[in-house]
Design brief:
Helix content is 62%, strand content 8%. The protein is mainly α. The protein has one domain: Orthogonal Bundle (Arc Repressor Mutant, subunit A).
Length: 149
């Protein structure tokens, strides 16, 4: 469905404005779909992002600042997210021997297992993107990267 129909707006000031609003609208649409899939695993998108980051560095632990700079949503409270994941047994925090101020954070086996289950569910989520070809997906990514230059 076209953006104009979705948000019931007939005109935009320019194609650039339409594109910006379309990005925001589509981002929200994808986030809502993703949230539904993650809810089955008792995770928020932000918590999932932290787990993905930690899996990417596994088995090397990361400091909180390293996690924060890699997060998709820079406004998320990484300290609070890590603590919630720790309480669920999905991550561990360990004070560094060399510097008591440094806390190393790593994903647990349970956290890895949850991500594997989510990966298996992601096929359904990615199926929603079937309306565009692989080449179109690559082009879309290229354009979005260019926008942030």
């Amino acid at each position: 469905m076209k953006l104009e129909e979705e948000i019931k707006q007939k005109k935009f000031k320019s194609e650039h404005e339409r594109a910006a609003i379309n990005i925001i609208f589509t981002s929200s649409w994808l986030r809502n779909l993703n949230s539904g899939n993650l809810k089955k695993h008792d995770l928020t998108p932000e918590q999932f992002n932290v787990l993905r980051i930690l899996r990417g560095s596994y088995p090397t632990p990361l400091m909180l600042a390293d996690i924060t700079c890699r997060m998709l949503d820079k406004s998320s409270n990484a300290t609070r997210l890590v603590e919630k994941l720790r309480l669920k047994g999905l991550v561990e925090r360990e004070v560094c021997e060399h510097s008591r101020r440094q806390v190393d954070i790593s994903i647990t086996e349970k956290g890895l297992s949850v991500l594997t289950a989510i990966d298996n569910d992601m096929g359904d989520w990615e199926e929603l993107l079937k309306h565009i070809t692989t080449a179109e997906a690559a082009e879309l990514s290229r354009i979005l990267d260019k926008l942030r230059e």
